[in-house]
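Changelog-linked ticket: flavin-adenine dinucleotide example.
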Amino acid sequence: MVNKKKKVAVLGGGMAALTAAYQLSQQDDYEIDIYQIGWRLGGKGASGRNTELGDRIEEHGLHVWLGFYDNAFSTLRKVYQELDRPADAPLSRMYSAGGKGSTPSGAPMDAFTPINWLNMLETTPDGTRKPWRVEFPQNDLEPGLHNEIISMWGYLELFLKWGIRDLAGDLFQPPGCMKIFKSVFKRKKQRQNFTDKFQHLVKPASDVEEVLRNRGVDTLPETDQREAALWHLAHHLHAGLGADVKDHTEKDHSVLVWLIKEAVNERWRRIKDTVETNDDERRLWSLSYLALSYFAGCLENRVLYKGYSHLNNLDLREWFYSIQLVKEPLANQLAIESAPMQALYDLAFHYEDGDTKKPRLAAGIAIEILSRMVMGYKGSILYFMNAGMGDTIFTPLYQVLKRRGVKFHFFHKVTELGLSDDKKSLKSVKISRQINLKKDQYDPLVDVKDLECWPNRPLFDQIVEGQALKDSGENLEHAWNSWTDTGGEITLDADNGDFDHVILGITLDALPEITKQLTQADEAKWGGMLNGIKTVQTQAMQLWFNGDAESLGVDKTRPVVGAYVEPLSSMTDFSHLLERENWDANGPKHLIYDCGVLEQKNNETQPAADKRVRDNVVDFINNDASLLWPKATSSINPTGLDWSALYAPENVSGEDRVDHQYLRANIDPTERYVLSLPNTVKYRIKTDESGFERLILTGTWIDLGFNIACIEAAVISGMQAARVLTGEPGHIVGETYKELL
Ligand SMILES: Cc1cc2nc3c(=O)[nH]c(=O)nc-3n(C[C@H](O)[C@H](O)[C@H](O)COP(=O)(O)OP(=O)(O)OC[C@H]3O[C@@H](n4cnc5c(N)ncnc54)[C@H](O)[C@@H]3O)c2cc1C
């Protein structure tokens, strides 16, 4: 019988490619083969268990999921449902009831744990460094179940309310029910008094009174304070505008911005002499000034009508500086150079060439992610995984796809895409097989405390040349390893019926070699894309400690730190993962993950980069440990950690103990993080616009609408790739700004 299924070759097994395979395999019309270099799935999100060291988890870096990852959570929720693990198995469900479920043996039932705060390290104007914690209240929404998205005006309103509430303080609070009730009775009298008092107190610019009158705003608070009057008017004008932005006029918006500017300037005059020394006042100022600048900047730049993307020629901080609610430099600097702002650049690795003196992040993209991150989260702002990212995300995906009949080809390194003679379509895919397997299929997982996990290196006993590979110490995931592939070369040929479509899920910096023919055929588009979009190297460390949080002096609430000392500036306490590792009673009691960018050095080898990361970590531990682990500092060096606090064999002393932690330099082309620098989004190519028949693109490097590299973007791009073939899913949440209007 003729096989009518379409054959799809998926190249790469990162989040984007696997999502595409997941979506396609919902239908029975496709035969799907996934080709993956090395021994595991997950790409930049892959993790591995170190079976020789307590089955500890080793990651590419620090990974958390943000509460607004609607597509990623809903995909994973369905994956866990389909996987249908026994209820008493660890990680038997994605997330339910606040993530508090546990099995009879005490293992977590849920794949995720919610986190409702972000800690930052603030460098105050006098140069001291102080912790700063921002709370994000948990809401009733469930990640992956409630996927409604707020309108763009809705986001703006939330920022406005936040800014006014915090900055105006007790001068003005948006009215509760009783106040509105009373105001009905006062209204008539107030109306008579309004004009006189308004002119006298508010000293309005032209158009202000007319706009307020048109929008039915004709009350003033009883106080004679101008600032209070301005907050009151801004709030009521905004409320009078209504939700449909098509009914707003440009004049409405300019008057609203005028009221906010005037109010903010009044406030600044009151606090400017104390704001530098008063921590609470300064922090309130920074956050509310950013919120109100965001609101005013979006209105002034007509973002509601033109979308976010037209701001992408500016860096985020440049954009904020252009708004200038207050003209004085200090007023702007305190907010725009504040720790939360730094944390955003840090979390998104947005430093050009990995140089922390060159923070650059396209403004349109940044404000889109900011809105969704801070105002659009479901349940909690952050979620921690309850095992390694590989174990939590990629094991379930792998197992479900395998059950559905998707074929996995590990140790298959794609080397070249070939074009047809007329250069219009993809004809071939060349693949180098890195090893020979002893049996037909590679079985990639290992069991760790009843959870199937990915090992941190190949399972050598399944490989014909396993011993030689082990002895060589070569890493098959690295582009520049000196292992000579032993499995021979294969070529998938469309003309032989090997594939009908290829989904290219290999990431950007690995592509120049692989897609040479494509670049030759379309230099402007492919060459432009490969040169125009930039990536960055990252570095990461995981430190295991002998003592628990209390003995180290760690704050009781687990730190999730952004804006720490550059470059290792993003850090979290992941001690909950120790339970999922395999230690005896004398094992480590505290665990932190930390990562940041790694400055670009051309032609650097992996060992040289590894050495640089080690130096950075030693530096960090010697100079920046005391604020984090105040009870474990060294008696000879009060800023540094006592090396014996790190978990390592007893006979190892001093900084050598760092060699028993997990450090990582992500310099391999495929490990580099994709950046969204100003003026670069234009080089991206959409999933169905490769320019070559049969070739569909996926990954965080394509133009997917939500162009910031993260798991949510990878999932969206995978959905888009599948949609090219199946038309499904018809609707992808948050794909473009248009649906936000
Ligand atoms: C250190 C670090 C920390 C991060 N932290 C977070 C976080 O906390 N939250 C978040 O949302 N995002 C985070 N990200 C970003 C996120 O991990 C990535 O955006 C996402 O995983 C990218 O997925 P992808 O499928 O587009 O690409 P990739 O994951 O790069 O997938 C590409 C795949 O292709 C494979 N491949 C490469 N070359 C070949 C070849 N020649 N032949 C066959 N296969 C090949 C790779 O092995 C990989 O499986 C982080 C990234 C890094 C680097």
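Closing comment: Example verified and attached. Residues 11-17, 35-37, 43-45, 60-64, 413-414, 505-507, 510, 538, 540, 595, 666, 670, 673, 699-700, 709-711, 714 surround flavin-adenine dinucleotide (CB under 6 Å). The CA atoms of residues 37 and 555 lie 42 Å apart.
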